Prior knowledge:
Layout: H1 43-67, H2 80-83, H3 98-119, H4 150-154, H5 158-166, H6 197-201, H7 216-242, H8 248-257, H9 261-264
Amino acid sequence: MADAHNGAINxxxxxxxxxxxPLHCDNADYLAPRYVEDYPRSRDEAxxxxxxxxxxxxxxxxxxxxxxxxxxxxxxTVRADQSDLSSHCTWKETPDRAKxxxxxxxxxxxxxxxxxxxxSNWSDQAAPVPVGLADxxxxxxxxxxxxxxxxxxxxxxxxxxxxxxxTRIPVDLxxxxxxxxxxxxxxxxxxxxxxxxxxxxxxxxxASARSxxxxxxxxxxxxxxxxxxxxxxxxxAELLKTYPDDRxxxxxxxxxxxxxxxxxxx
Length: 266
């Protein structure tokens, strides 16, 4: 699911997926006029980009729930052929064993949620210099982002959940501009005059400039960890609700967390 190179959680960093901003919560950048006059993106434009990121996770969640149906038969017995991982999953969005398909959908839906905590100012703080383009304000939040309510949003119409999510996004929230494609298909090559991912905001490694302020790096890790714990618990709850007959939901969860589910999930 999450090894250093080829796990499902890393699939969005492979091939053309790497250049799609919504798959990394990029380009939702904004600074209010009190920090920078005439910032080139409005709060609404930044929010629209963040909603595009959330939308990809909602779609993957729905797909993962559907794919889980193949893990067990109609009586709740684990299907050995669909839960065997003796050979590697391919993470190429092609037909595969049900376990591979569930993990791929979860991985591709969780990647951007993890990225959010290292690509945004949600959990960090600014350096002790004037706040501005090169030093965006930090929100120093310790909670998980309320607009990542993916399970609940997956049961709602898109217009309804986007309306709800908009009300939960703080005015000073920003992610970084990156030279990839945003939700409109625009590729910004230099991010001139904008909060830049590489230069100003990312905490992807402990060596980045923003990571070196206070405990920003560890806070990004803690936020991402708490987020994925929430997402996994929500996914399990949705399987139990969607597949209650013959303990099918329970068996699906068991099949996902055991290496040899046919013997471990009688």
